[in-house]
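Hi team, as promised in this morning's meeting, here are the two structures we talked about. I've kept the exact order from the run log so nobody has to guess. The first one is mostly here for context; it's the second one we should focus on when we meet again. Sequence first, then the predicted structure tokens.
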Amino acid sequence: MIAYIVRRILYTIPILFGVNFLVFVLFLHVNKPDDMARMQLGNKRVTLEAIANWKKTNGYDKPYYYNNQASGLGVLTDTLFYDKSVKLFVFDFGRSDNGRNIGRDIRERMWPSLAITIPTFFISLFITVMFAMLIAFFRATYIDWWGVFLCVILMSISGMFYIIGGQYLVGKVLHLVPISGYDKGLLAVKFVVLPIIVGVVGGIGSSTRLYRAIFLEELSKDYVRTARAKGLSETTVLFKHVLKNAMIPILTGVVVVLPLLFIGSLITESFFGIPGLGSYTIDAIQQQDFAIVRSMVFLGAVLYIIGLLLTDISYTLVDPRIRMS
């Protein structure tokens, strides 16, 4: 197990380097430092001297990949790629193009994101698994048919409709919670209730259909027929045997998502005015702030790889037959 984990961690180094390099190439070759300077200075008629000063202040005056004017390792380290991308491997996020400390912003903004994503994730998981088990238990009945029909309807509705409809119904008509905004401490509860409800409702359809298919596949296997032949009740078979064996494919999707909860929801946070990492990333893209974008992409890649590793480890906990050398 330890050797497997070490190998997987070593595999992540070239993957993260490739992600960093790809983001660097796509962003800086499409959006030149001169264009970034004009964007940040906020004036279309800025002088060449002002552009040069901004580039020097923010570290964009260096060569991209290779500095032939430097000596020794400086030919590689005294470059824009090393300063802006390679330092991410030690989680040195540096400063944004407008001078803000990115690491501090991430530490501050992750809590509003987690306040939405964590409750949404666990509530959605519980509801969808229970709902899927219910319609699988009553398979080939009206409950099964209407359950699938409801899931298809929920899947067919755009997520934007849930957001706008929820804001209008809950905020405007019923006046139960604020439409947008955020506050610190327990005062933030009234601001995150609506985004959580919208997130849960929006994900019921697709997840329930997936879990229903998994449960139905397990119900058709020989060990289920054996359990029934021994006289076990249908609920015992479903909860004690089917659910346990169905957890492996369910964990494949669930555990991978767990680290990504840290990143937040791009659309939800923007529409509800939540100052989380999702809205932070959207604002950086709109402002063409390369420093924030590459930091968030790198962080997302690291968390996704951690999720894949946790998925493999969780398999051995659910099914002891699975062992990794």
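And here is the second protein, the one for discussion:
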Amino acid sequence: MGLSAQHVAELVLELGPLVSGLELVELQPAPPRDLLLIFREPEHGHVRRLRLSADPEFARLHLQLGPTQRHSGSVDPFFTALGTLLVGATLQGLEQVQGDRIVRLAFRRDGRPAATLVLELTGRHANLLVLDGGGRITARLVEPAAESPAARRLALGAGYALPPGVRADGARGPSASETFPAPAPERFPAALAALAPLSARVEAALGDGSEQRFLEGERRELTRRLEQRRNACANRIAGLEERARATAEAERVRMDGELLLAHLSTVPRGAESIELPDAHTDGAPRTIALDPGLNARRNAEKLFARYKKLVRALDKVPEELALARAELERVTAFLARVAEGEPAALAEEAVASGLLAAPQASPEARAKKPEPRLPYLRFVGLRGSEIRVGRSAQDNDTLTFRESNGNDLWLHTDGSPGSHVILRLAGRSEPDPEELLDAAHLALHFSPLRGTRAADVHVARRKEVHKPRKAPAGLVTLSGGKTLRVRVEEARLARLLDARRGTPPPAAR
């Protein structure tokens, strides 16, 4: 369901008096193909937002009545150039072109033509174009396929021509009010809905469909990334289990080394193997492979060195397997939430918790000098104290031993891997009890125990936390502290996470 030429005519008739003559004060991209033009009335200072959408399935034009979420990521250079060109200019007029599904918006600056926007509401070929004063195309949002008729028609520098096809013959079809149902009364503020009733119908019908399709696309992409991570975890577990089976032969290697030592004089130099009676079993012959370039003693030493290597690997495998299985459980549990949750928020949470890597930046963003990466996430406690949460095992070590002071509080889940959490005391001797609970909630949230109703959390001064020599990343020992039993409060956790996303925390009592 899209806009017909008749619908476009009705919308232009409604919108023209509302936005013509107003100054464009802001341009908000809504990628991939939507744009919000923000106008301000000079008399009352009221803001009016005009939505232009070249979405291939939901191309539309209407006054934006409902709330929108400001886009914070990279955008197409088209939007950046358009903002430079038009912000501060005045919309001279808005008109339908030759009774077709095409709308032209002419802007002036200091009494002179600034540029003209052309919105082609032509279904899957919808586009947004910029024309100069002579009607030549200077920019286009959607690049047409190479060597196609559209590529020739929309070539940069070419004079604008209407798209080919059958023009509207003037026969009247269903009106916009007949085609699009009226939105629920509570959907939009009553004054706005009364100001632009056709816009309200179009926004509710086509805008919701576009938003839902966009959310489904985000949900599919998040699911794909999580399934890729889940498969990687499963492959790692399979590899560790295979290594565990291989290390099971460690004792046999040691026994072969002892057999060689016991029969040094019987092993000829340069032999590739030797058959010896196996004193460790029933005395049956045992064939031992040899390195012909080494003598018998050196071959025995080589076997003992291999035995030690296998034993070291065997010591690490159980811990690595436990971590890999815990990660697989976390990814699987997170995947189950994707079907119902808001994809963008879930993707941010997955990155913050270490389940997913941050998405790669656009070429424009990569060209900028990147800000130094912090080894921790920042949160704000109820009274304003900073709480830091390690991003990874290596980051845990950096946070604990390089990014905190001796009297700061260190927190970690009891009996489970997870992030190190530091509650900064900023010179105070004791923490606020509410902020201690805040930090404990974050320790649970950024661990495999997320979702449990209650759990234990270790609390110690940072100076009571020690790093054993040659210990793996994230592994520490404690020389003091206590264990805090935490019963999860959903409202507390929501406050902490919302504050990080930009929602101001409630004022401290």
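Starting points for discussion:
The CA atoms of residues 31 and 76 lie 8 Å apart.
Confidence is low (pLDDT under 50) at residues 501-509.
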